[in-house]
Amino acid sequence: MSNRMAGGPKKCWPLIGFSLICLKMVASAKTAPEIPTIDQAYSKISNSITVEWATVPGATSYLLTAEDGDTVIETMVANSPGTVTGLKAATLYQITIRSISATGRSQASPPKQAKTVLAAPILEVSSPSPDSILVQWEAVYMAIGFSVSIMRANGLGRIWKENTTNTSLTFTSLEAGTLYTIKAYAWNANGTPGDDSTCNQRTSPPAPANIQVSFDSGALKASVSWAPTEGAFNYTVMALSDSSELSCRTTLSACTISSLQCGTEYLISVLASNDAGASKSTSAEALRTVACAPGRVTIQEDPPGHLSVAWSDVDLGDYYVAFVKSDDGLEVHCNTSLTQCNFLSECGFTYFISVFAYNKAGQSPLGDVFNYTTAPCCPTDINPVLVSSDRVEIVWSPVRGAELYETKAVDGFTVVECNDTAPACTLSALECDTKYNITVYSFSEVRGSNMSCTSQFITTAPCSPEIKSVSKDAFSTINVHWRPTNDDATYTVTAQGETGLFRCSSRGESCAMAGLPCGSVFSVTVVAETQAGRSLPSYSVPLETVPCCPAGLTVTQVTQSLINVSWTVGTGAQTYVTVLESHTGQSKCLTHQNQCLLGCISCGVNYTVVLKAISATGLTADCTYQSYSSSACCPLGVKLYRLGPNGIRIYWQASRGSANYSTDLYGSKGIFTCAPSAGLSFCDVTEIPCGDVYTVMVSPVAETGLKLTFCPQKIYSVTCSGSTLGMVIYRGKRNAE
Predict the structure, then answer these.
(1) Cβ 717 vs Cβ 693: under 8 Å
(2) Cβ(188)–Cβ(146) under 8 Å?
């Protein structure tokens, strides 16, 4: 009997003996044994005929021969009965026998005819249902009918037997999952049964009962269990949906189906099977898996501070839960049967968003986790730490979410910007005295710039003024004029030099400074100031005041026509011009020194003294002093007369103008002085020793009482002889020292 796959029909083959074809023995020269006589020849198996004969004395074996006209088959046997095998079923054969001994082989016995029985039907059995077995076979040569019987293989219970002329037969009302033994044979026209075929067949098992389905939503698998079924070798669990078919096989009474699809409704059935086939499927159990994770999730932030999360509807989803978790760990969620949720958001956060669908089976699998980064926060404490005419430096506190700051200063169509990762910016190349709309935008790579940041106005410091002129009026007041370049600005003029700092202020185009010291050099600048700040100083303009007049001036009469004018140094003066002027004329000298000799001076004349102090650049200070009166002229005609033994009168001729004179006599025995009474042109010296030579000088006396010593001297000899009245001898003339 060959094995077939479980559930399919199988064929049962009869067991047939083997035949031996024997060679004829070579007859010996000795006497052959007796010829046997066949008592009977009959067939019980379709491929053999059994022969019975009387034993031949001395025979050691027998040779049976079967001939059907086409073939000859011989079989060596030891004694009676003997069987010739290898024959054809339902075939008439001529049977002969020979006895064989040590002396040789006998002649063939008289033939006897015998016909082999019908061949056994080759059965093909199957169990089309748990309570039936179908037996099928092919037609058997010379058969006119068939007998088929069935019973439990364990021998218990009744035997069913059926006769039929067909080539198939179905036994019903059998027990499911039970092994049965089927036996069948054919018979010929004489009613002689042929060989039988026997095989075993199990009925297919009944459908499993008490099916329980448990769904694991997290793993997307279903555990199915049932009551064990009689005669089942294994079980197959089927999960059928509109788009897929899943199954699992087991020999136990439970099985797990994995890889179920979310959002799918399955019909779960269980088949029991054995070598006969499978049972009918059980009544299907419906299983709804969890819904799939919602797709097409969109996230919008409109307006800022409000997140709108939307998603597509999914099959088998009863309601949805959206979770939003910020990067600081705070998580919120919303539960809805709709396909949208709204959340409050803050700037500078990254939110991680996931949406789950729910039904009675549980939570959907985790879908894509979306992240949404809100725009970075805007700086709010923008503080200008430096505002100049062309530059504004601002700082602010770092804000959440900002990777870069974009600072823009807008003035009409002019835009100045700077980008930096630091919370500070210096905007340069700005226009002075200009109001700029300055905005600091925070930027992140994910979200870009936050364009909702508010701006503030900052006005740059005023423009630097341009000095047009610096002038001095008749009252030595310095007037500074500039070109105004700002609106509503206060201008401060500063004159800075070694002697100090001087200022004046104005909201107009000029201002005046008085009291600047003479002989000084100043650097004059103008600064504009508004509420926005101070401008840079203007380009400086040098300012030089006139030299200072010397504080003191001294005029000294050197000779009658020559005077020496000296003075203290005048600050800032490099050159001096001294002028003495009277009705008689003018005397002038130019010098770098602080003194000057002036000649051609007329004696006894009142002069006006003027000193000009001139700087290196030619600035001139006219310095006027008290008038100066030149000394009186030296007297003429000086003569000495004896007034007695010890007296002398000195007489002279006075020069023009009135003057006081003083007379000095210098001798070896002393110096003798006399002064005339007012209006007189002589004076007397008494008690003067005679016999000596005297140097006589009559000098005019200045108003200050200073006696001038530049008049000429005369030498006289005063003798002691002669009368007491007479001339003094003139000895000569001596220049004044």
Answers:
(1) yes
(2) no
Beta strands in 460-614 (DSSP E): 466-472, 478-483, 490-497, 500-506, 510-513, 521-530, 533-534, 541-544, 553-557, 563-567, 575-582, 585-591, 595-598, 606-614
How far, in Å, are 71, 249, 279 from residue 245 at the CA level?
61, 14, 19
Q: Is 436 helix (H, G, I), strand (E, B) or coil?
A: strand
| Banded model confidence at residue 574, pLDDT cuts 50, 70, 90 | very high
Place of tokens 């002989």: 519
Q: 653-663: b or e for each residue (b if 16 or more CB lie within 10 Å)? A: ebbeeebebbb
- When pLDDT is cut at 50, 70 and 90, the band that residue 17 belongs to is very low
Would you give the distance in Å from CA 457 to the centre of its chain?
30
Q: What percent of the chain has pLDDT over 70?
A: 93
Cα(675)–Cα(127) distance, integer angstroms? 187
Q: What is the pLDDT of residues 423-449, one digit of tens each?
A: 999 999 899 999 999 999 999 998 888
What is the four-CA torsion angle of 697, 702, 707, 712, rounded to 10 degrees? -30
**The Cα angle at residue 533 between residues 532 and 537, in degrees rounded to 5:** 140
Residue pointed to by tokens 């700002």? 486
Distance CA 673, CA 688 (A): 10
Distance separating alpha carbons of residues 736 and 700, to the nearest angstrom = 13
CB 170 within 8 A of CB 102: no
Q: In which residue are the tokens 């000859």 written?
A: 72
Query: At which residue do the structure tokens 């070598």 appear?
Result: 275
pTM of the model: 0.55
CB 550 within 8 A of CB 519: no
Rounded Cα gap, residues 488 and 530, in angstroms: 7
Quick one: tokens of 162?
């059926």
The model's confidence at residue 665, banded by pLDDT at 50, 70 and 90, is confident
Residue-level pLDDT at 386: 86
Are 73 and 65 in contact, with CB atoms under 8 Å apart? yes
Centre a 10 Å sphere on the Cβ of residue 698 and count the other Cβ atoms it contains.
Answer: 27
Residues in the chain: 737
Q: In 3D, which of 173, 130, 125, 170 has the Cα closest to residue 279?
A: 130
Cα end-to-end distance, the chain, whole Å? 181
Residues 20-69: pLDDT tens digits?
333 333 334 468 899 999 999 999 999 999 999 999 998 999 999 999 98
CB 133 within 8 A of CB 174: yes
Tokens (6 digits) for 664: 């000095």
Alpha-carbon distances of 184 from 151, 158, 256, 541, 556, rounded to whole Å: 12, 17, 44, 142, 182
Return the minimum-mean-pLDDT range out of 4-8, 45-49, 257-261, 667-671.
4-8
| Lowest-confidence region among 46-50, 282-286, 426-430, 463-467 | 282-286
Distance CA 129, CA 631 (A): 173
- 3-class secondary-structure state, position 533: strand
Torsion of CA 701, 703, 704, 710, to 10 degrees: -30
Answer whether 294's CB lies under 8 Å from 317's CB.
yes
Could you tell me which residues are beta bridge partners of residue 465? none
Task: State the DSSP string of 227-280.
Answer: E--TT-SEEEEEEE-SS-EEEEEESSSEEEE--PPTT-EEEEEEEEEETTEEPP
> Smallest Cα–Cα separation from 613: which of 590, 582, 586?
590
* Cβ atoms of residues 140 and 118 within 8 Å: yes
Cβ 631 vs Cβ 702: under 8 Å: yes
Handedness of CA 631, 637, 638, 642 (dihedral sign): negative
Structure tokens at 214: 């448990």
